[in-house]
TrEMBL record, chain A:
Record domain Acyl-CoA dehydrogenase/oxidase C-terminal: where: 236-372
Domain Acyl-CoA oxidase/dehydrogenase middle: 122-215
Protein name, as recorded: Pimeloyl-CoA dehydrogenase small subunit
Gene3D superfamilies: Acyl-CoA dehydrogenase/oxidase, N-terminal domain, Butyryl-CoA Dehydrogenase, subunit A, domain 2, Butyryl-CoA Dehydrogenase, subunit A, domain 3
Family annotation (InterPro entries): Acyl-CoA_Oxase/DH_mid-dom (IPR006091), Acyl-CoA_Oxase/DH_mid-dom_sf (IPR046373), AcylCo_DH-like_C (IPR036250), AcylCo_DH/oxidase_C (IPR009075), AcylCoA_DH/ox_N (IPR013786), AcylCoA_DH/ox_N_sf (IPR037069), AcylCoA_DH/oxidase_NM_dom_sf (IPR009100)
This protein's UniProt keywords: FAD, Flavoprotein, Oxidoreductase
Nucleotide-binding among keywords: no
Annotated family: Belongs to the acyl-CoA dehydrogenase family.
Organism, scientific name: Alloalcanivorax gelatiniphagus
TrEMBL record, chain B:
Signal peptide start-end: none
Domain Acyl-CoA dehydrogenase/oxidase N-terminal: 6-119
The name this protein goes by in its record: Pimeloyl-CoA dehydrogenase large subunit
Native source organism of the sequence: Alloalcanivorax gelatiniphagus
Residues in Acyl-CoA oxidase/dehydrogenase middle domain copies: 125-220
Keyword list, A-Z: FAD, Flavoprotein, Oxidoreductase
PANTHER family assigned to the protein according to its UniProt record, in alphabetical order: ACYL-COA DEHYDROGENASE, ACYL-COA DEHYDROGENASE FADE29
Amino acid sequence: MDFKLSDEQRMLEETVGRLVRDTYTFDARNKILESEQGFSTDMWNQFAELGLLGVPFSEEAGGFNGGGPELMVVAEGFGRGLVVEPYLATVVLSGTLIDKLGNDAQKEQWVSAIIGGETRFALAAYEPRGRYDHTVVETSAKKDGDGYVINGEKAVVLHGDSADQLVVIARTGGDSDARDGLSAFIVDANADGVSRKGYATIDGLHAAEITLSNVKVGADALLGEEGKAIDALEASLDLALITLCAEAAGAMEVACDQTLDYIKERQQFGVPIGKFQALQHRMVEMRMELEKVRSITMLAACSLDAPADLRKKRISAAKAQVGKSGRKVAEEAIQLFGGMGMMEETAVSHYAKRIVMIDHWFGDREYHLGILETLIDVDDHAA
Amino acid sequence: MDINYTPEERAFRDEVRGFLKDKLPADISRKVKEHKRLGKEDTVRWQKILNEQGWLALHWPKEHGGTGWSPIQKHIFEEECAEAGAPTVLPFGVNMVAPVIIKFGTQEQKDYYLPRILRSDDWWCQGYSEPGAGSDLAGLKTRAVREGDHYIVNGQKTWTTLGQHANMIFCLVRTDPDAKKQEGISFLLIDMEKSEGITVRPLITLDGEHEVNEVFFDNVKVPVENLVGEENKGWTCAKYLLTFERTGIAGVGSSKAALAHLKQVAREQTVNGKPLIEEPHFRARLADVEMELMSLEMTNLRTVAAAEAGGVPGAESSFLKIMGTELRQEITDLFRRAAGPHALPFLPEELAGDFEGPYVGPEFAASVASRYFNFRKLSIFGGSNEIQKNIISKMILGL
């Protein structure tokens, strides 16, 4: 048992840490949020130069060959700075799915373009009726000559508004919520028949509602075998959950630090408010929730090679804990900041928003506790 | 980063498992698993078995007969013991007074007391709390006045756990009433059998059990050689004892065993003709406990690993104490709910080790309400959870 980072992991941590500290200041981030695109292309190019866009890909593909712990380290750093660039959408969700399902030609074309920072992707998986359930897919892909015609609607597609390319999950067979019959297609985001309604999300990101009507794609758009995308999709979603948990841990850490600094400084009744026991105990509870999230995120990040049931159990437990503990930390941070916590100009309010809303991406606390409930009999010996 | 045990750690775990399988008496583990009352003789019998193996003194250095184990080894051992249903070792001698004697005691004290503790010759209890000194321990008033070769002790201790069985008590006493609160305290070892003037009175807790006592001292003569460390420096010993490395403070093994038992019970109980474990509200709470336990276990392992790497777990163990006790209490609440109306019958005789039935309700239900109330103590003793928060505020947060 060893919780220390390897030399390579520590380098990765330092790289992201330096970038966020030096360039991703609160003011710089506010400027990025005001831009129409909602993220910074300059920043994206820096990610590419530093090799961050290649973290989960093999060395042959030009990547870093990273697993769960590496993604965790990067995402924690991003969480500390509330980074809004489409890393999760492009690299973690779409990139790893293409890497797993794609043939050599597809990988050569798209994984390289992702690592190099030339192409940004979004994963169009969830649908209006399915809420957090990725198996509820009514979008259809019907054979049309050599290729397919895709029709359907996708909801709250992370960075779907700005993506150059989409990975669309569509049904080529099976009932509307069957695990079998799901296929993944690469679709040009500007193709005929693709209409996107983009918007900002309350946690500083962007997303889109996407309608696909009679979108024609060639046979080379299909990733992997027809109707067999589910396992790879779930593997990419698992990576996304680990990334989100780690991002939450990073953001929660900063929210705790900023709150602690504030209650040491803010004077009322002639003393810093941190002298009051009622506030001290709330601050301790915030830190305790942070420790839980750090711990269970490590557990999830180190479980990618565990048997499927155990992996799912741990990852869902981590996401559920983030939902529960994150809410507590965010609410207490605002409470301890008092009126200042309500202000847009106060950084902690942005952390609070991101931490709370992470619960709404890819399954909230109840959704993941529901998964955990089905896995309650899976034996969990941590070591 | 690797959350799995190394091959050596795994081999050690197998060794511990093998030992428990061979040597843990079935009648004792049955009582533990079924939450029956344990007698003094059960604890002593198990301690002797552990001592024969050289595994009683977990935290002592090897030279004094301890295991010399690393933090991870201790953690593995405690986990396995909990899972196997081994009784808790009486902590007052081996885990509390002994480390103080090893650190601050004279050679004579070490030579005399340590082997006796290993052999379970003495049953130790703790004389810390007083009616007026609970969380504010340094406010203690029990007085010891030096008269020639003796101290004369007068005062009262309370919450003395299992003091009814004890022949030895270690006490914090005030030797200088004029000094500042923490500075006039001394650490005394008192023989309860040979000394005159000691009265032990039972305190019955809300679950009807006799677990704690109050101890009165009326002109009790204690030889000066029973002083540990320097006179008026007892607070140093007290603090050392309270912060002494406690890998097991989170109680992960015990909570895991309890949760496994709870699931078993929830499979057997039925609600509307279906197993309780399938009832949505119950199952949701069970899943939440499972999640919290996974977080706690990893937090505990992180602390253990930090200790293994040479770090001293100080105030971090306060986090573990709070998290661990809250979770353990939540599990006792779920047990109470699992029993339904049969949590109500209050039949202390059903908790006796030799009770053979018939039980009024399901067997597991006999202890659930009592244990729920008894376990309210977890967030009170060993430094209440609020005191733990004060410690974290000061030591970690710098508030």
